[in-house]
Amino acid sequence: MFQVSLEKPGDGPAIEKLLDQSFGPARQGLTAYCLRGDVPPLPELSFVMRGAAFLCASIRYWPVAIDGRRDALLLGPLAVGQAWRGRGLGKILIGHSLARAKALGHGVVLVIGDPEYYQPFGFSSDLAAGLSLPKPVEDGRFQACELVPGALRELSGGVGPAR
């Protein structure tokens, strides 16, 4: 059926197609894109799901800075091709990638997304209350998850691209 694997260098065009389907071609104007800056996604946390001869879903993570320090990961984009939505592929990718991020020693993950979708994975807008974004987002959509309990305790301030 579908298999999770690390993104390969040649996957870029297929991932871009998934992102256009999911977020539209104007997606670069979204707040999450401002947080990425010119930094590439982390290859050890960029996963795809493949079928027999096609790429059907993708997830990427980016390093971000909180109050000028490189302290967290930004989850996203998460994209699932239209033909494969509703099969739980996105949830599989989130679970797999969060486990990998924790194993690699990361403590905090941020996301801008649907609260109902991300809350089962430990994300909460309450955890992100001490953080601010460079552009506004809808209430409740900016969320944080502590992969290490208490990791956000000492973190507050503006979130921006890692340098």
Describe this structure as you would to a colleague.
This protein is of the alpha+beta class and 163 residues long. The chain has one domain: 3-Layer(aba) Sandwich (Aminopeptidase), CATH 3.40.630.30. The chain is 23% helix and 30% strand. It has four helices and eight strands; from the N terminus they run βααβββαβαβββ. The chain has helices at 12-23, 31-36, 89-103, 115-118, and strands at 3-6, 47-50, 55-66, 69-80, 108-112, 131-132, 142-146, 157-161. Strands 1, 2, 3, 4, 5, 6, 7 and 8 form an eight-stranded mixed beta sheet that branches. Strand 2 (47-50) and strand 3 form a beta hairpin. It starts with a strand and ends with a strand. The mean pLDDT is 92.
Summarize the structure.
With 163 residues, the chain is an alpha+beta fold.
Number of strands: 8
Largest sheet: 8 strands, mixed
> Residue share in helices?
10-25%
N- to C-terminal distance: 39 Å
Helix count equals 4
**The CATH architecture:** 3-Layer(aba) Sandwich
Element layout with pairings:
Blueprint lengths: L2 E4 L5 H12 L7 H6 L10 E4 L4 E12 L2 E12 L8 H15 L4 E5 L2 H4 L12 E2 L9 E5 L10 E5 L2
List key phrases describing it:
Aminopeptidase; 163 residues; alpha+beta; eight-stranded mixed β-sheet
